[in-house]
TrEMBL record:
The keyword Iron-sulfur does not apply. Coiled coil: none annotated. Its EC number is 4.1.2.13. This is Probable fructose-bisphosphate aldolase class 1. Keywords: Glycolysis, Lyase. GO terms for molecular function: fructose-bisphosphate aldolase activity. It catalyses: beta-D-fructose 1,6-bisphosphate = D-glyceraldehyde 3-phosphate + dihydroxyacetone phosphate. SUPFAM superfamilies: Aldolase. One of its GO terms (biological process) is glycolytic process. InterPro entries: Aldolase_TIM (IPR013785), FBA_I (IPR000741). Belongs to the class I fructose-bisphosphate aldolase family.
Length: 340
C-alpha cells in the first residue's frame, strides 16, 4: 500500500462521524498547574492515575475516535498492565501524540511566539509510531493585540506548522494542525475573525508550498469568539455563523475534518457552540467535531479531586461530556440535556 493510501485510511478512522478527539496531551507544566489548582499533587504517578481514569471510562469509544497523548503517557501502563496505546487500540480508540516542544518568543516579532521541536522530529515520529501512535499534533499560538500577530509571526508560524505536517506524513502519521488564536484580551469578535482569517490563509498557503496532502490533515482551530475580558458575550448562533464565515473563506474542502479546540470556553459553551455549527451547517464540506481538553476534562478533574473514592463519579461526568459532544457532532444536542 502506498503512503497516501495508508494516510487516508488512518484519517478516515480518525474522523468517523459523530465522534471526536480527546486532547489529553497537556505538557507536564500545564497539567501540573491544573492539578495543583485543585490541591492535587502532580507526580508521574498522580498524572498516570488521573489519565488512566479517563482512558478506562466505559463507553467513551462510542464518541471518541482518538486521544492525543503526551509523551510521558505513551509509555505508561494502565492498571491492568497494558501500555496505553495497546489498551486504547483494544477499545477501538486511536492514539495520537503531541510532538511540539512548546513556545518561545519569536525574535523581532513584537511579542509573537513560535513553537519549538522540529529538530530531530523525524526520529521522534518514528519512535512514537513504533510505540503505537498513528497521528500527531502540533500547536502554534497567536495572541491578539492591536499589532499582533505581526506579518512575520504569521509567516513564521505557518511555515513551522507546514514543515511539521510534511514530516508527519513522510513518517506515515496523520498531522493535526493546530493554529490557536487565543481568547485572551478584550478584542471584539470582528478582530478575532480578521486575525483568524489571516492565520488560516497563511497556514494553508504554507501547507500547499510544502506539498502536504490536505486530504490527510485534521485542522484544529479556535472558534470565532469575543476576547475573554471583553464585555460582549456571543450566543452559539452567532459563534457558528462567524466561525463558518472564516472557515469557508480559508479552509479547502479537501480537509476531511475540523476538530475545534475549546480554548477556555466552559464545558457547556463549547458543546453548545459545536451543536450550533452542526445544526446550522449540515452540508459543510468538512466534518465539524471536537478535540477538546479543558471543555472535556475540567469538570472531571474537579470531581475526582485526587481521591480514589471519587473515581466512579468523575468517570460518569467524563462519559456524559464525551457523549454530549458526540451528540453535538450530529446536531442532536440540546442544552436541556445538561440537567438530565
Ligand atoms: C489549546 O490547547 C489544546 C486544546 O485544549 P483546550 O480544548 O483546553 O483549548 C490542547 O491540546 C493543548 O495543545 C495541549 O493541552 C498542550 O498544551 P501545552 O500548553 O501543555 O503545550
Amino acid at each position: 500500500m502506498d503512503k497516501a493510501t495508508q494516510l487516508l485510511e488512518t484519517v478516515s478512522e480518525l474522523t468517523k462521524r459523530g465522534k471526536g478527539i480527546l486532547a489529553a496531551d497537556e505538557s507536564t507544566p500545564t497539567i501540573s498547574k491544573r492539578l495543583q489548582a485543585l490541591n492535587i499533587d502532580s507526580s508521574e504517578s498522580t498524572r498516570r492515575t488521573y489519565r488512566n481514569l479517563l482512558f478506562t471510562t466505559p463507553g467513551i469509544n462510542q464518541f471518541l475516535n482518538g486521544i492525543i497523548l503526551f509523551e510521558e503517557t505513551l509509555f505508561q501502563k494502565t492498571d491492568e498492565g497494558t501500555v496505553v496505546p495497546d489498551f486504547l487500540r483494544k477499545h477501538q480508540i486511536m492514539s495520537g501524540i503531541k510532538v511540539d516542544k512548546g513556545l518561545v518568543p519569536l525574535t523581532n516579532a513584537d511579542g509573537d511566539t513560535i513553537t519549538q521541536g522540529l529538530d530531530g522530529l523525524a526520529d521522534r515520529l518514528r519512535q512514537y509510531r513504533e510505540a503505537g501512535a498513528c497521528f500527531a499534533k502540533w500547536r502554534e499560538v497567536y495572541r491578539i493585540s492591536e499589532h499582533n500577530p505581526t506579518s512575520l509571526g504569521l509567516r513564521s508560524n505557518a511555515e513551522v506548522l507546514a514543515r511539521y505536517a510534511a514530516m508527519c506524513q513522510e513518517q506515515l502519521m496523520v498531522p493535526i494542525v493546530e493554529p490557536e488564536v487565543l481568547m485572551d484580551g478584550d478584542h471584539s469578535m470582528a478582530r478575532c475573525s480578521e486575525v483568524s482569517e489571516a492565520v488560516l490563509t497563511s497556514v494553508f498557503e504554507a501547507l500547499h508550498a510544502h506539498h502536504v496532502l490536505l486530504e490527510a490533515v485534521v485542522l484544529k482551530p479556535s472558534m470565532i469568539l469575543p476576547g475573554k475580558s471583553s464585555s460582549h458575550k456571543a450566543l452559539p448562533e452567532l459563534v457558528a455563523s462567524e466561525t463558518m464565515k472564516v472557515l469557508s473563506r480559508t479552509v479547502p474542502a479537501a480537509i476531511p475534518s475540523i476538530n475545534f479546540l475549546s480554548g477556555g470556553q466552559s464545558a457547556t459553551e463549547a458543546t453548545a457552540n459545536l451543536q450550533a455549527l452542526n445544526a446550522k451547517y449540515p452540508k459543510a464540506p468538512w466534518r465539524l467535531s471536537f478535540s477538546y481538553s479543558r471543555a472535556l476534562q475540567a469538570p472531571v478533574m474537579a470531581a475526582w479531586a485526587g481521591k480514589e473514592s471519587n473515581r466512579k463519579l468523575a468517570q460518569g461526568i467524563f462519559a456524559r461530556r464525551v457523549e454530549l459532544n458526540g451528540l453535538a457532532c450530529r446536531a442532536e444536542y440540546d442544552s436541556n440535556m445538561e440537567t438530565e
